[in-house]
Amino acid sequence: MKAPSLLGRVRVVLSRTSHPGNIGGAARAMKTMGLGQLVLVAPHEFPSEIATARASGATDVLASARVVDTLEVALEGTVFAAAMTARRRELSLPMQWSREAADTVAGYAAQGDVALVFGNETSGLSNEELALCQLPVMIPTNPDYSSLNLAAAVQILCYEMRLRLSASAPAPDGLAAPASFEEVEGFYGHLESAMIRSGFHDPSNPRRLMARIRRLFGRIRLEREEVGILRGILSALDRKVD
């Protein structure tokens, strides 16, 4: 019996989509490449007859789509998230081009659910949303005309993922379990609380401290055991402060 494809672990997340036609177009792009997990973060309009028409038969992807209020909820249960961006951001993690990024994401798909995150058609992802993901990704478009339709961007990334994950593959040897989204966010919350309690961090004058810390730890892509160690250190320091 053939094992299921790792493509089933890839979720496409569309944040604050303004036009329902792009949701339908994204669903069509996903189905042609064998992806089925669609998560919509606060869409302007869904469900929609326009989305259904643009899906061109990929109505099963639309029917099973989850609608959530925040990107944090959309990323629950993932071990890695790649965020599509049209420009480089200050204090963001090191960027990868889409083809290289697909290799990175595929490696994590062997260990759990992963996410491809796309922002609003006009404004893209906010800096706060980008900070929730481990890898900023750019598509190498024509610099003189870089405007790329949302559904087209989804198609490109889904195609790249299909090239790498259409056949099942065992988890690579020697890789420790990556920390889940919830574990990493729990660590950041614990660290921020500890810094406030110690007097090191003044939330009324943040100086972009947490953004810099996210960038620092994001570069090393924390493992589950490492998060446990770090939180154990913080708990010991908390007891000293008390």
Automatic annotation (TrEMBL):
Domain of life: Bacteria
Protein EC: 2.1.1.200
Recorded coiled-coil stretches: none
EC primary class: transferase
Gene3D superfamilies: 1.10.8.590, 3.40.1280.10
GO molecular function: RNA binding; tRNA (cytidine(32)/uridine(32)-2'-O)-methyltransferase activity
Catalytic activity: cytidine(32) in tRNA + S-adenosyl-L-methionine = 2'-O-methylcytidine(32) in tRNA + S-adenosyl-L-homocysteine + H(+); uridine(32) in tRNA + S-adenosyl-L-methionine = 2'-O-methyluridine(32) in tRNA + S-adenosyl-L-homocysteine + H(+)
Pfam families: SpoU_methylase (PF00588)
Family named by the database record: Belongs to the class IV-like SAM-binding methyltransferase superfamily. RNA methyltransferase TrmH family.
Protein name per its UniProtKB record: tRNA (cytidine/uridine-2'-O-)-methyltransferase TrmJ
Lineage of origin: Bacteria, Pseudomonadati, Pseudomonadota, Betaproteobacteria, Rhodocyclales
